[in-house]
Amino acid sequence: QVQLAESGGGLVQAGESLRLSCRASGSTFSAFTFNPFAWYRQAPGKQRELVAEIRNGHTTTYIESVKGRFTISRDDAERTVYLEMNSLKPEDTAVYYCNSPFFGWGQGTQVTVSS
After folding, report:
1. Distance separating alpha carbons of residues 78 and 84, to the nearest angstrom
2. What are the two backbone dihedrals, phi and then psi, of residue 59, each rounded to the nearest 5 degrees?
3. Which of 31, 2, 20, 18 has the alpha carbon at shortest distance from 97?
4. What integer pLDDT is reported at residue 86 of this predicted model?
5. How buried is residue 100: exposed, middle or buried, by Cβ count under 10 Å (0-12/13-18/19+)?
6. What is the spatial distance between Cα 64 and Cα 24, in angstroms, rounded to a whole number?
7. What is the pLDDT of residues 67-107, one digit of tens each?
8. With bands split at pLDDT 50, 70 and 90, how would you rate the model's confidence at 1?
9. DSSP readout, 43-81?
10. Above 90 in pLDDT, residue 113?
11. Contact partners, residue 113, CB within 8 Å, separation at least 6
């Protein structure tokens, strides 16, 4: 059974950076390579929102509020998807989740940005 596991969250100050990782354990190379992945986040009292998505051709999309600051990437050989987050703002504080329509959801990793 494939499981998605996020890591890399933490507490940082505004303007700093974090890199989140999402590893798909138990996945074959072909199953990972041909599936899209996305990062979502959910702040306290708010609905979960799509932050960034990467397709199997490495095409990426972002919500407006993170464009130019966040970068989603994937290493198919490592079965891992990344979210590089720069110039973090307090409003980026949330639990960040990795998702794939085929593999489901990870357990989430907390990102807290202090002002």
Report:
1. 16
2. -70, 135
3. 20
4. 98
5. buried
6. 27
7. 999 999 999 999 999 999 999 999 999 999 999 998 999 99
8. confident
9. -TTS--EEEEEE-TT--EEE-GGGTTTEEEEEEGGGTEE
10. yes
11. 11, 12, 13, 14, 16, 88, 89, 90, 91, 92, 93
